[in-house]
Design goal:
alpha/beta
Amino acid sequence: MNPRVRGLSRDAAIIVRTFEDLIETVRAIARLFETDKVFIIGSQSILLSWPDAPVILRTSGEIDAYPENARLWEITQKELDPDFPPEASEQINALFGEGSDFHRNHGFYIDGVDENTARLPSDWNTRAIYREVEVDDRTVLAVAPCPEDVIVSKLARLSDTQFRTDY
């Protein structure tokens, strides 16, 4: 068993994300959308700033991501087929989502999201974490909120959930 997951059952070890998973996510999104910037949000964005974060922080079956050019891609696709206006997040889910070939081949899936999915502080991008990733013959920028902003986002979601439960 991998020493990074000592103490976890074999099944739990399967859902521990790695920095390599994050890099594979960036590459998949960058290739599909021909973009030079990919945003990683949600809990697994921690991997960009802390690749060997504690296992409890990396335990997830998915990585949430979207391309910078999602809206432009959607406009272009709609021009090609006006009867079928696709959403970038749906395209991600279809090709890389739960149950996809990507999921079966890589042991995790990519959850297609957009810039409104996480309730991040309005100025989160001033503290964002950036990392260059080589994709084929070009450099793509991976962007993630700093860990503190991810915590704020999670707390906001928890607060909303708790509020709905209590009231």
